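User: Hi! I'm working on a homework problem where we have to compare a predicted structure to a textbook description. Could you give me the structure for the chain below?
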Amino acid sequence: MAFKKSLPTPELDETDLKILKSLSQDAKISYADLGAAVHLTAAAVHGRVKKMEKTGVIRKYGVDLNYDVIGLPVIAFVRVQTGKTSCRESGRALLKFDEIIECHAVAGEDDLLLKTRTATPLDLQNLLDTMKIEGLIEKSVSILVLETQFERVGL
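Assistant: Happy to help. Predicted structure tokens:
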């Protein structure tokens, strides 16, 4: 990923960005291996990582799941109109649905764009029906993914 010529915050330098890129590709990399990659000691890298955690640059660590293997192969993007409910209010309410893995407020005729993962298209329909019955969404348009060409997890 290309970064702007000027860094996003003055607290981050090029070495920090290299550390972030390495961590985003492998969150379990050792401080020793990370240090070798950026030409610093493990202790120096550890200090930088802890500082980035403390300042909120690093919010959490995760895993790259194979959703097909765990039984959630159906990806859909759902354009949502919330009606009288605000995007923030709807977003908070939609957190309870594990099938929704992303929720974005958008500009245009729609209010939210959701990325969902379900076992079957019928499970997606049940999710949409539940959201409508509960008054969380007024209208939706679903786009089912046929095949994923690539998906970036890190920088």
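For your comparison, note the following. The radius of gyration is 20 Å. DSSP finds five helices and four strands in the chain. Good luck with the assignment!
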